[in-house]
């Protein structure tokens, strides 16, 4: 039967269609939704999508609806295990709370970055902030 | 339903487009192409940090700069209705075709019996065209609709 399948041995996403997936984007965002469609560029259609924000061991979900994601922005995706989803070691908090926590985390990170830059500068190692991509910090 | 077909279905609907640089564009989709280039009208552009806004009557966005598009929930429902309507049409067409082709086969069967087993396939030279047409109908009936059905269901 495998011999008849033209996709045998090729990486593809067709088997993930209609499953509940977590998609990680290149900007670091996490989307969770039902995969409805894919194409040869790995462009995705997600339905009933939520954006999940993690801060420490807390998370918050923001309902987002239907997404058409351009494939090149996807880092990875994977099926959500329903059983394991029931007993997450994380604590869900409200959207406002998680956004607040995210903002604080961001501010801490910026402050740390500022101190590092300052320390480097004092030692004659000027770091050009422009060439550091925030995504990789 | 491929992602870009869904986008085409979403024409004239409001949507949110986020670019790779974090800017977002809210507007109604006017048109799109197979590169995901899009035209929007009545657009509000929002800066990456969300604190500056620009209004513009229309804009064009190059597909390669897009991160994602968010479209209204009902567009997917429209697709489902479309798919159901199409599969109904297809089923009816196949019913008609099925009737024709079985008639043709019945007509041909005795003739092919006089020739050889390839008679059914290649047919007499005069009937080549009709036979070919019939075969196309058969293969369409045999293979394509169920496969498309699967895709749509998925």
Distinctive features:
heterodimer, A: 137 residues, alpha+beta, SH3 type barrels, 2 domains, 6-stranded mixed beta sheet, 2 helices, 6 strands, 34% strand, B: 154 residues, 5-stranded antiparallel beta sheet, 5 helices, 5 strands, disordered C terminus, LSm4/Sm_D1/D3 (chain B), RNA binding (chain B)
Task: Walk me through the structure.
The complex is a heterodimer of chains A (137) and B (154). With 137 residues, chain A is an alpha+beta fold. Chain A has 2 domains: 92 residues, Roll (SH3 type barrels), CATH 2.30.30.100; 44 residues. Chain A contains 2 helices and 6 strands. Chain A has a 6-stranded mixed β-sheet with strand order 5-1-2-3-4-6. In chain A, a hairpin with a 2-residue loop joins strand 3 and strand 4. Chain A is extended and about 65 Å long. Chain A starts with 19 loop residues before the first strand and ends in a 15-residue tail after the last helix. Chain B is of the alpha+beta class. Chain B contains 5 helices and 5 strands; from the N terminus they run H-E-E-E-E-E-H-H-H-H. Chain B has a 5-stranded antiparallel β-sheet, with no helix packed on it. The longest helix of chain B has 42 residues. In chain B, 14% of the residues are buried. Chains A and B meet through strand 2, strand 3 and strand 4 of A and helix 1, strand 5 and helix 2 of B. Strand 4 of chain A pairs antiparallel with strand 5 of chain B, so a sheet runs across the interface.
């Amino acid at each position: 039967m495998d011999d008849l399948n033209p996709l045998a041995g090729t990486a593809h996403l067709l088997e993930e269609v209609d499953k509940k997936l977590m998609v990680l984007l290149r900007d670091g965002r996490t989307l969770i939704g039902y995969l409805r469609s894919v194409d040869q560029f790995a462009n995705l259609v997600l339905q009933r999508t939520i954006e999940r924000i993690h801060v420490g061991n807390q998370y918050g979900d923001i309902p987002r609806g239907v997404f058409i994601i351009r494939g090149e922005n996807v880092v990875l995706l994977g099926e959500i295990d329903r059983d394991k989803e029931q007993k997450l070691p994380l604590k869900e908090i409200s959207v406002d709370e998680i956004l607040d926590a995210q903002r604080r985390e961001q501010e801490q990170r910026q402050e740390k970055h500022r101190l590092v830059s300052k320390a480097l500068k004092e030692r004659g190692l000027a770091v050009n902030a422009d060439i550091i991509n925030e995504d990789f910090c | 339903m491929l992602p870009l077909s869904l986008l085409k279905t979403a024409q004239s609907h409001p949507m949110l487009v986020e670019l790779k640089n974090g800017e977002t564009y809210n507007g109604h989709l006017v048109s799109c192409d197979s590169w995901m280039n899009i035209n929007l009208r009545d657009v509000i552009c929002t800066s990456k940090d969300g604190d500056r806004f620009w209004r513009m009557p229309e804009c064009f966005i190059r597909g390669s700069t897009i991160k994602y598009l968010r479209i209204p929930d009902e567009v997917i429902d429209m697709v489902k209705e479309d798919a159901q309507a199409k599969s109904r049409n297809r089923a009816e067409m196949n019913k008609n075709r099925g009737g024709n082709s079985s008639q043709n086969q019945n007509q041909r069967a005795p003739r092919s019996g006089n020739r050889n087993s390839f008679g059914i396939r290649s047919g007499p030279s005069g009937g080549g065209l009709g036979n070919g047409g019939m075969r196309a109908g058969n293969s369409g009936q045999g293979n394509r609709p169920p496969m498309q059905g699967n895709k749509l269901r998925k």
